[in-house]
Amino acid sequence: MSEIKDFKDLIIWQKGMNIAEKCYYLTKFFPKEELYGMVQQVRRASASIPANIAEGYGRRAKGDYARFLNISQGSINELQTHLILCQRVRLCEEKDIKLIISLLEEETRMIVSLIKKLNA
């Protein structure tokens, strides 16, 4: 197992960045009239996941870290809601969001596990 030198070494952060990248790619194909609507919402929520993981890690206090992980979890829930709505209003297909949703579920499990460890 490699040593964690900073937040970029965290698997949970790396997975969050992967999710954000996939969301940015997905929204590239949304209609132009959604640029300041759903495109912005999906991108902001997806970027918030790894950003809050990094910020919490940088606080160096377990309580603060857990609080920022909880904020990340909120962003995951928000992003899932936006993606489901995108599918429902036909901005994308279910197949387009299926992988992202599964990555979000995995990220949730990792965040919940880490929060439990920090609170133990």
Key features of this structure:
120 residues, mainly alpha, 77% helix, 0% strand, elongated
Order of helices and strands: HHHH
- The overall pLDDT, averaged over residues, is 95
Q: What characterizes the major β-sheet?
A: none
Q: Supply Rg.
A: 15 Å
In helices, the fraction of residues equals over 70%
Amount of beta strand = under 5%
Helix/strand structural class: mainly alpha
Number of discrete helical segments: 4
Let me know the number of strands.
Answer: 0
State the shape: elongated
Low-confidence sequence ranges: none
Structural description of this entry:
- This protein has helices at 11-27, 38-59, 62-88, 94-119.
- It starts with 10 loop residues before the first helix and ends with a helix.
- The model has no long low-confidence stretch (mean pLDDT 95).
- It contains four helices and no strands.
